[in-house]
């Protein structure tokens, strides 16, 4: 008996942000989670890199396209994936010790209130091209809301809500109910190697940055680190 090997082709890619986008979209209204297929959520126009591409060229694509991962191709087959996280270890080097969190942080903080609707948080994330929102309550930092938090919230909601009322009920979910609390922060004086080490250890993609007076003055993410790495290494 002859066994024929079926060749698998890369046809799409899915991120947490894609899941949050589709599951929170009014377009899919009362559609139950079981009716969502991979093809519904995936991005079909996949940007790829070759296994022999220079790693700084790969970093440039990640930054330019504002994406978190790139499939790696060996000829016409996928043989791996490279993410922003894969570059972070480079920032632990001595060359980065004199650079501080305040030097690379994003000062234009995008935040919403804990009492805002979750669908509003989803829209802000999608429209702004970011991965997380700071959540405030009584003018204080109360938590952080990521694409992952939103995706998990919508999946859980759609599993338990009545299908006929889903499109109405989903609008009543509040951001504060699904945010991550007890947010870890870094100081404006945190060095880049310390920041990189923290990201690698915790798996967190971003941290609020606080002043000496413990006031939130910015946010620093893997993207900010990757920009620095690209500037120094390239």
* Uncertain regions spanning at least 5 consecutive residues: none
Q: How many whole angstroms does the radius of gyration measure?
A: 20 Å
Beta percentage is 15-25%
N-end to C-end Cα span = 54 Å
Q: Main sheet: which strands, in order across?
A: 1-2-3
Order of helices and strands: HHEHEEHEHEEHHEHEEH
Major sheet description:
3 strands, mixed
Structural class: alpha/beta
Helix tally equals: 9
Number of strands: 9
* Estimated helix fraction: 25-40%
Protein described:
By secondary structure, this protein is α/β, with parallel strands linked by helices. Helices cover 34% and strands 19% of the residues. It has nine helices and nine strands. The strands form three sheets. A three-stranded mixed beta sheet has the order 1-2-3, with no helix packed on it. Helix 1 crosses helix 6 and helix 3 packs across helix 9. The longest helix is centred in the middle third of the chain and has 14 residues. It is flat, with a radius of gyration of 20 Å. The termini are far apart. The model has no long low-confidence stretch (mean pLDDT 90).
